[in-house]
Amino acid sequence: MSLNNNMVFNNQQITNLPQHSNIEFKPLAANALLHVQLNWLAFYIPLITGLVVACYLNAAFANLAQTYLLIGMPIIIILSMFYNVVSIKLQGVAMRTHDIAFKKGIIWQQIVILPLARVQHIEVHRGPIERKLGLASLKLYSAGGMSADLQISGLTHDDCKNMRQFVQNYRNDDNIAQATPADE
Fold first, then answer.
1. % the chain with pLDDT above 70
2. Which of 39, 79, 110, 138 is 20 to 30 A away from residue 153, measured at CA?
3. CA-CA distances (angstroms) from residue 73 to 36, 39, 66, 78, 178?
């Protein structure tokens, strides 16, 4: 077996990669914060109710935990509500020609960029609170995954429908381009 010494391997350096820091993100819907706060409230009400019942039924627990509950619970609730405000303000979504980008996070910031060519399935979800507020969540799945590769909550229902249509149009245009034979 002989090696062809005439072959020259050339690996060009890419110098002009697109910068994700230049993406202009659109903020979430105005009701997104209210939606998140109502979801947390739906968690805190049963928790506080359970603690009140435990204090009512068990006097020893009530004497031991009364100070912690009266001071700690309001602090935890206020901190979580403040965290939600900051978190929602920092989230954003961007639809670009060939991908969709979503940013989130306060301490650990994350930007997820999903190429539209890889999207296999799209779902729009609307829970009861979301329906009441005119919101929806968009889930995008790529090939080979069992869970959503990108989930964006806090969008208006119209934005979700428009984004889903944009992705479907992109996929249809891509399929048409692949099916059309190239002119020789």
1. 86
2. 79
3. 19, 17, 10, 9, 58
